[in-house]
Every structure is written in structure tokens, then in C-alpha cells.
Design brief:
With 590 residues, the chain is α+β, with helices and mostly antiparallel strands. 30% of the residues lie in helices and 24% in strands. Strand 14 and strand 15 form a beta hairpin.
Length: 590
């Protein structure tokens, strides 16, 4: 028999009854039933109930076992007594009568429990992550992640893609976040950067004639952590294709992403016909460029009904042509208590309040707003937005460029509070026609809105003859249930257009050559039209595991302060290390 095990703790079935076997694993818990000890033994594969009674030679040692001891047990498989089957366990019809126990690794007092799924402080969980990962739900999440990545690889290869690995030590790139810099010992005073994404390399692969690339790529960004973005590093399904239009990318990737979701959705419906929503329409209807389409509420511009009305606050705002009034319908929300609650919520979000109209029995509007604008305008609003008796609508006014995010939050809040958002499905969509540029208020200049390497719609002619803030890009996102899970675009592969695009954003031609020399040179020697995307592996796994925190699906994440409490990173470098790297530390004044 093998030194440690003849079977795993998830393998035994009724067909093994009567066999002498050997198991090794962790003591999950010990139960004392009138002097008979029941020990649940756990390993990666499952859990087996082991029984030790006072007649067993192993009883004296069994009495000393505690949770998380690693032990080896020898014994005989037998049928569980009538009425004691556990249908929740694959091994639930059998048990092992133990004849011998060997302690392979004793365990001290646990800083957090492994048995059960109770909440525990996150810093303790991360410091003792090796214990946390033994917990059933987290262990399952990590294994689900493994299977999702396997599924992605299988589906990408089925679509004719090839997996390539790109460099980790590279040059700095303007991806929209700070780079992690790595000082060079061999080249004093110079630095490598960890890749924010393999963007330039994957485009260079297309220049090299490889046609269809993918990679489960590690990406590094020095940005502030939040629940749906891990600090420091994350993984993405990175994709690039040659000789393609935007439609070709959509046709290749929709089956991959839909297939992954269907495979791991645990029976929840997954949208098959993805909607395509222009960026401007997404902001206008949903107040978000990553709308949660499980929520049926669509906002509408109702400015005309308030223009010149008795509600002077809105009427005066609308004298400025850039201002608008948007309505957020609230089906079933026509109670004073709910409307007051939403108004208080808005004030908590830093807003002066949230005007509303309620429609009572008979269809009459009620509330201060309705009283101010009169029954005729109230009825016209109702006809436009389709509310009925017992419904309400909330109103947001001002410059849409400044209030669209708040209106989106209000839409989400109404959907959540009134149980309108269907939590039991996955709604996938493409957001298309992103603006190529935006105005940077801080620097008072035109800047790239998204990916600087995207092809502008209209190409070089648009760059030369159009107001930059009106140019749309062949740039697209995939959204799911309120999260952006992928982003991509058709690339600007024309050297003159690339230089012009960067020039509009304030980069001179020499700066483009200096910073993107590899790609710029490659474009001079026969560049195929190409495009692609990158899907966030972590966010997809998070959604499919039913959690809202990426630390619940990652092996060894950092905490909210970007610290690895398990390994003690970041840590100070020794004087010798700094001297070798020609680096001097200049700490900020306290």
C-alpha cells in the first residue's frame, strides 16, 4: 500500500465496502457521540467520515486530535448505519472504521476557523491565507477559476487562435495608469516597466504575420485598489487578430464569452443575442458605460415638459441650452415613504435632493413637482415615460456631462429597492462607438478617451478635418450585469494617422517615435489591418462565482492598502541591493 494513501478523501463509494484502505488529509472536525469519535477527514478531493471507538487501538491518539491536524488513517470501509446517510457528500453512504492513525503534521491554535463559512476580518484572512484557502467556498472558487481558464483556452484554440507569451520586463506605455518600474542594475539610471497590458507586443505579433494571438496575460498597474479591481496585478484573456473588421472580432469572441458563461452559470440564463449599445446611448438611457441590463429602467429626456413651467428651479436651468432634465421611471414606487427614502439617499450622495412625481389612483400626479407644473404637463410626462397608477418618476437636472453618473446610480438604486433587477441571469452586451478623445479639465487639453492605439472612425480624414471631441473610435467594451468585463478596438495601423492621432493629444512626432518606436517602425514595413480585445479573467470569475469582491476568487491577493500581509510585501530593500541598482531612497517628509 502507498505510504500515505490508497484513496483520496472524495473517492470511497459503496463498491469499496469491505476493503482495507489508507487515507491522508486534514482533520476537518471531531464529534464525540457517547465515547465514539467521528472524524471528518478532508483533502482537496472531498471529505470522508471516519469512526474510532474505544475498542480501536487508535482511540487514545484519536482523542488528542484537533482541527487541521494532518493525519494518515488506516481502516476498513463499511456501510453507514441506516438513517445516517449524508446525501450532500459523494462519500455519504460509507464510513471508515479506523484501526491505525499517524500524525503527519500537528496544528496549533487556529487564528481563524476553517470549518464553516462565517465572516472573519479580511486582514486576518489574508495574513493566514493558506488557512483561508482551505475553507470550502474559497477553495471551490479557486478551482472554478482554474476550470474557467481551461474553458477559455479550449474555446480560443477551437476558434483558431494560438497562445503566445509576451515579455514581462518592457518599456513604459501610456495605458491610463501608473507603471510599476523596475530599476536596471546593468544600465544605471534606467528602468524597465511591468506591462500594464501586452498591447504593443500583441500588435507587433500581427506585424510579424502570426494572424491570431491569445494569452492569459498577467498585467500590472500601480493604481488604487477597489473591490472589483485588485491592486498591483490582474489577468486578462488577451486577443488580437489580423485582417479583421469590428464585426469579425465580435463574431469570434461572442461564442467564446457566451460559452464560458453558459458552462459555469449554474443554470442561470445567459443572453444569447447581445445588444449593441452606442456609448452615448448607454449614458443617456442608463447613466453608465457599463449598464446593468437586468434592470429594465430606461431614463428619458423630459426637458420640454419643464421648459417655461411653474417649477422655476428646472425652468431656469433649461434657459442654458446645454442643460437637460432626465426622468428615471420607478414602476411600483409611487408611495411617499419610498420617494422620501430616495430623496434622503440622494442627499447622502452629495446632491441637494431628488425631485419626484407619484401617480395616484385615476392617474393624477402628486407631489411638489406635480403641483408646480400642473396636471397637463404631469400627464404629458406620464404619457412619454409610460408610468401608470402606483408608479413614480424621479428627476435629475443640469448639465448631463456632470450628472449622468449620479443618474445611473439613482437608476440602480431604484431597480434594487423595488426588486426590478433580475439577479438570476447574466446579461451581456457590447458598448460601441466610444469617443476617440475627451477634454481633460485638469490639464486643459484634449486627451485620449480610451485606448490611444484605436482606429478613429473616418480614419486620417476625420483626424484632419473633424472636431476631435466629435470623433468616434472603433473601440468597444463587453459589459455584464453592471461590470465592464472586456475592452478592445480596431487598431490604428497607418503611420501618418498614428502620428496625427497622438499629435491631437499633445504628443509630437519625435515623442511618438521615442515612446513607441518598435510599433512605429513596424507600421512602415507592411502593417495588416488588425484588432482585438482583452477580457478581465478576474471579473468574469467573480461574476460566475456570485461574489462582488475579487479577493474571493484570487489565490494570494493584497489588501486594500496594496500590501501582501502573508509575504510582507512591499518591504524595504537592503543598502547592498540599492547600491547594486544605483538607487537612492528619498522618503517624503513626515
Amino acid at each position: 500500500m502507498h505510504r500515505y494513501r490508497s484513496h483520496t478523501c472524495g473517492a470511497l463509494r459503496e463498491s469499496n465496502i469491505g476493503e482495507t484502505i489508507r487515507l491522508s488529509g486534514w482533520v476537518h472536525r471531531v464529534r464525540d457521540h457517547g465515547g465514539v469519535l467521528f472524524i471528518d477527514l478532508r483533502d482537496h478531493y472531498g471529505l470522508t467520515q471516519c469512526v474510532v471507538d474505544p475498542d480501536s487501538p487508535a482511540f487514545s491518539l484519536a482523542e488528542k486530535l484537533r482541527s487541521e491536524f494532518v493525519v494518515k488513517m488506516d481502516g476498513k470501509v463499511r456501510r453507514r448505519p441506516d438513517g445516517t446517510d449524508n446525501d450532500d457528500l459523494p462519500t455519504g453512504k460509507v464510513e471508515v472504521y479506523v484501526s491505525e492513525i499517524e500524525v503527519l503534521g500537528p496544528a496549533g491554535d487556529l487564528p481563524l476557523p476553517v470549518f464553516g463559512d462565517q465572516e472573519y476580518p479580511e486582514d486576518i484572512r489574508l495574513k493566514y491565507r493558506f488557512l483561508d484557502l482551505r475553507r470550502e467556498k474559497l477553495h471551490q472558487n479557486i478551482m472554478t477559476r482554474v476550470e474557467i481558464i481551461k474553458s477559455m483556452r479550449r474555446r480560443m484554440e477551437g476558434q483558431g487562435f494560438f497562445e503566445f507569451n509576451t515579455p514581462i520586463l518592457t518599456a513604459s506605455s501610456p495605458e491610463g495608469a501608473r507603471d510599476f518600474l523596475v530599476p536596471s542594475r546593468i544600465h544605471p539610471g534606467k528602468f524597465y516597466a511591468l506591462p500594464q497590458a501586452p498591447q504593443q507586443y500583441k500588435q507587433l505579433l500581427m506585424m510579424s504575420g502570426f494572424d491570431r494571438y491569445f494569452q492569459i496575460a498577467p498585467c500590472f498597474r500601480d493604481e488604487d485598489p477597489r473591490a472589483d479591481r485588485l491592486p498591483g496585478e490582474f489577468y486578462q484573456l488577451d486577443v488580437e487578430m489580423s485582417f479583421v473588421t469590428q464585426e469579425d472580432v465580435f463574431a469570434a469572441m461572442e461564442p467564446v464569452i457566451t460559452g464560458v458563461f453558459e458552462e459555469f452559470a449554474k443554470g442561470k440564463p445567459v443572453s444569447k443575442n447581445w445588444r449593441r449599445i452606442p456609448f452615448a446611448e448607454a449614458l443617456r438611457k442608463y447613466g453608465s458605460d457599463k449598464p446593468d441590463l437586468r434592470n429594465p429602467i430606461e431614463m428619458q429626456d423630459v426637458s420640454e415638459h419643464f421648459r417655461g413651467s411653474g417649477f422655476k428651479v428646472f425652468a431656469r436651468m433649461l434657459e442654458d441650452p446645454k442643460n437637460q432634465v432626465w426622468a428615471i421611471p420607478a414602476p411600483g414606487g409611487g408611495s411617499r415613504a419610498f420617494c422620501d427614502r430616495m430623496n434622503s439617499w440622494a442627499q447622502g450622495e452629495g446632491q441637494p435632493g431628488l425631485g419626484y412625481i407619484m401617480w395616484r389612483e385615476g392617474g393624477e400626479g402628486a407631489g411638489p413637482l406635480a403641483n408646480n407644473i400642473g396636471p397637463e404637463r404631469t400627464a404629458a410626462i406620464r404619457a412619454q415615460i409610460g408610468t401608470k397608477e402606483g408608479d413614480a418618476a424621479f428627476f435629475v437636472a443640469g448639465d448631463p456631462d456632470k450628472f449622468w453618473k449620479f443618474s445611473g446610480l439613482a437608476r440602480n438604486k431604484v431597480g434594487e429597492e423595488l426588486n426590478l433587477t433580475d439577479k438570476e441571469r447574466f446579461e451581456l452586451a457590447w458598448i460601441v462607438d466610444f469617443p476617440m478623445y475627451e477634454y481633460n479639465e485638469d490639464d486643459k487639453k484634449v486627451d485620449f478617451s480610451h485606448n490611444p492605439f484605436s482606429m478613429p472612425q473616418g480614419g486620417l480624414d476625420a483626424l484632419k478635418g473633424q472636431d476631435p471631441l466629435t470623433i468616434k473610435a472603433f473601440q468597444y467594451d463587453i459589459t455584464c450585469n453592471g461590470y465592464e468585463i472586456a475592452s478592445g478596438g480596431i487598431r490604428n495601423h497607418v503611420p501618418e494617422a498614428m502620428v496625427k492621432a497622438f499629435e491631437i493629444a499633445g504628443y509630437g512626432e519625435q515623442e511618438v517615435v521615442d515612446r513607441f518606436g518598435g510599433m512605429y517602425r513596424a507600421f512602415q514595413y507592411g502593417a495588416p489591418p488588425h484588432g482585438g480585445m482583452a477580457a478581465g479573467v478576474d471579473r468574469i470569475v467573480m461574476l460566475l462565482c456570485g461574489t462582488t469582491n475579487l479577493r474571493e476568487i484570487s489565490l494570494f491577493p493584497m489588501n486594500q492598502q496594496a500590501m501582501d500581509l502573508l509575504m510582507g510585501a512591499p518591504s524595504e530593500a537592503t543598502t547592498k541591493q540599492l547600491r547594486e541598482l544605483h538607487v537612492r531612497v528619498n522618503l517624503p517628509q513626515k
